Amino acid sequence: FFSPGFQVAPETKAVMKWLRSIPFVLSASLHGGELVVTYPYDYSRHPMEEKMFSPTPDEKMFKMLAKAYADAHPVISDRSELRCGGNFVKRGGIINGAEWYSFTGGMADFNYLHTNCFEVTVEVGCEKFPLEEELFTIWHENRGALLNYMEMVHRGIKGIVSDKFGNPIKNARISVRGIQHDVTTGN
């Protein structure tokens, strides 16, 4: 997952352990500097390719998740090309991460490959480091989109895998025909 020789920081190890210990199914990473929602894979399947579409087996689901956020965001959903993120207008405010730019070691890729959690990255505003007085506006621009995104947790298949006595089965593998990515049941 990480480049050869890459040293994993203690904080990163702690987050990785935490993510593996709790059966999260949906998350978002919030960044600044653009107005777009990206989804895995963030790392190109061909590392020498900088801007190469790199879909997961769950491409349709990730597009739906990213679109749920983007469509509910008043600025990302704005069709004006005269704003930051204008180059994403024709894409509906979403893009496959590696198609925008490829990088290794991202949370969204880690979550998809090593947990049951589907994560998107939300670029919440034009400024990489917004001023304190801009935070209130950014919050209000993203609040409804965050709530809409969180409601997506109710999409898909859900239930309890149990034995013949009704006891939950921990770490049962669940496969969906046509999708080459299994998930496992939680504790």
Write a structural description.
InterPro entries: CarboxyPept-like_regulatory, CARBOXYPEPT_ZN_2, Peptidase_M14, Peptidase_M14_domain. This protein has helices at residues 10-21, 59-72, 97-100, 107-114, 135-151, and strands spanning 26-31, 34-39, 94-96, 118-125, 173-176, 179-184. By secondary structure, it is an alpha/beta fold. It folds into 2 domains: 23-156, Zn peptidases (Aminopeptidase); 157-186, no CATH class. The radius of gyration is 18 Å and the shape is globular.
Write the layout of secondary structure elements.
Elements: H1 10-21, E1 26-31, E2 34-39, H2 59-72, E3 94-96, H3 97-100, H4 107-114, E4 118-125, H5 135-151, E5 173-176, E6 179-184
Parallel strand pairs: 1-4, 2-3
Antiparallel strand pairs: 2-4, 5-6
Q: Keyphrases for this structure?
A:
alpha/beta; about 20% strand; about 30% helix; two-stranded antiparallel ribbon; single chain; four-stranded mixed β-sheet; 2 domains
Short overview:
The chain has five helices and six strands, in the order αββαβααβαββ.
CATH topology of the largest domain: Aminopeptidase
Order of helices and strands: HEEHEHHEHEE
The CATH superfamily of the largest domain appears as Zn peptidases
Highest CATH level, the class of the largest domain = Alpha Beta
Radius of gyration: 18 Å
Count the beta strands. 6
Sum up the overall morphology in one term: globular
Please identify the structural class as seen in this structure: alpha/beta
